[in-house]
Amino acid sequence: MSEKKMPKIALGAWSWGSGAVGGDQVFGNHLEKEDLQPIFDAAMQNGLNLWDTATVYGMGASEDILGSFVRQVKAEDVIISTKFTPQIAGMYGDSMAKMAEASCQRLGIDVIDIYWIHNPMDVDRWTPELISLLKAGKVKQVGVSNHDLSQIKRANEILQAEGFKVSAVQNHFSLLNRSSERAGILKYCKENDIKFFAYMVLEQGALSGKYDTKHPFPAGSDRAKSYNPILAQLEDLTAEMAKIGEAHGLSVAQVGTAWAISKGVLPIIGVTKVRHVEDAAKAASVTLTAEEISRLEELADKTNVSTIREWEKKMD
Asked: Is residue 275 part of a domain?
């Protein structure tokens, strides 16, 4: 961001609130404002002021909760990242501007710092609508999420024709899913001064050290269905993460976050407890060695698992 200094880590609010595609269904969480206020306060105290959400998370519930906290601080003290999801555009009269305005109202802001096209649907149809928002000053920077390299390049062409650019790319990226790296997306971003935001860096907790075959995810959520069947294959990797963590005074989750930062990306860490914020802040201060990074990636490849989810595609 030009006016606001970006922290090394963004905090994700996907699991906040309930409803369609909300925290209760995806994560098995039931978190409301009173649960989350201490988390927001701790984050701001630790200098973690970049918040990532989307209209589709709980169909506005996540933005509503985050907005109740954002109203308590100065606008210049927070960086807000939210998303336009083409698949639900019909709810807003097929208008990106209307969806963006509704987000602003829920979030209690006049201008969105980073506005994303959440999923690719028709790059040529939707990207031009970002230009109108940029010209109107409604958004400061724009990004694309879950787009492959050809779609990112096409979005950039459309924006550059009007004097703008893709400022950020947000894809699933973790030790278990490095397809954006293999596809050349990280390289393209680096060459074109585009910030790469990595979501699901800890695979919704599967790389946090909290879950294993003896301690599976509680049944009933999407992540339990996705990750419980592969926990046994992750044990060598998480054991190595724990070993590297001991050398740096980090937890398993912090090692996963530090690995992402070492790759030159900005991880989005979902926060549902104050300690998640404190973990993220500490992970941002540690640099892993090249040997440690190589060892982790080798073990990750050996797991032979795919963590591509139903809304995604492989990038390479």
From this structure: yes
The sign one gets for the Cα dihedral 259, 13, 19, 312 is: negative
Structural domain harbouring 45: 10-302
DSSP 8-state secondary structure symbol assigned to residue 287: -
Which sign, positive or negative, has the C-alpha torsion 29, 25, 267, 160?
Answer: negative
The set of residues, in sequence order, having a beta carbon less than 8 Å from that of 267 and lying 6+ positions away, is 9, 10, 197, 198, 201, 257, 260, 261
Residues with Cβ within 8 Å of residue 54, at least 6 apart in sequence: 14, 62, 63, 82, 83, 85, 116, 118
Answer yes or no: is 62 within a domain. Answer: yes
Report how many domains make up the chain. 1
Q: What is the pLDDT of residue 310?
A: 83
User: What CATH code is carried by the domain that includes residue 274?
Assistant: 3.20.20.100
Overall average pLDDT of the 58-77 stretch: 95
Q: Is residue 119 part of a domain?
A: yes
How close are the terminal C-alpha atoms of the chain, in Å?
29
Which token pair is 101? 């305005």
pTM of the predicted model over 0.85: yes
